[in-house]
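JOB MANIFEST
job_type = single_chain_structure
chain_count = 1
residues = 265
[input]
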Amino acid sequence: MNPAVTTGLAAATPVPAAADEARWQTLLEHRNEAPPSHAGCPLQALYQPLLTSRGPYAVGHLAQSLDGRIATTSGISRWLSGGEDLLHTHRMRAIADAVLVGANTVLHDDPQLTVRLCAGRNPVRVVIDPDGRLDGSQRVFTDGAAPTLLLIADDLARPGERRGQAEVIPIARGTHGLDPHQIRHALQQRGLAWLFIEGGGVTVSRFLAAGALDRLQITVAPVILGSGRPSIVLPEITDLCHSLRPRTRRFILGEDVMIECDFHG
């Protein structure tokens, strides 16, 4: 196991909001190249490896409690993590070609999946709905803020079908839901190679189990729910030698701690 890299955002010297945003814009402007170096800049430490990643790339993100829950049993998850993690998710959207969520996330949270808290363009929004449960009335299908794709199992999708303003894309089923590699391939064919899988737990877990994630970010909030929906769920193992041992980096996001796992570093 490689040693972890620890970088504290909150522990660094406080940066005025205007300067912080200026540095973020500089990082975006110099994507895929080395930006002007700011020694010790926490933004550069966190985002530069993501901005300079080459080829198809997929990063998952979940926010969870200390006891590994991402929502109550009924699906309520707002606001589990704090404002700095929310800002981080908007920055990740700004980096990505497309942001992906599962149908349950849309049903319970009705998210916009747009970039509003920082500089950057809106990514294409992709909703994974194998059984076509969503009727197209949800906000991502009607607000026109960004192009939206709805992924439905190929045995259910109809040619030329739309839900609201979203284009329906047929995807082959895998063992559990839609095949993550088929999803990545279909989106890459549309020029959407850099993917941010924002949730929920089932969706991120399936991408992880399929080996279809390059990195996974788990933000841990200082709260204990005691019950609720679990974070990562993978097939059962019988020996710790079969556990995943990624290279990790750790970042302080306000009161939260984000651990980023690198599976291909």
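[summary]
The CA atoms of residues 148 and 168 lie 9 Å apart.
Residues 78-230 form a domain with the Dihydrofolate Reductase, subunit A fold (CATH 3.40.430.10).
exit_status = 0
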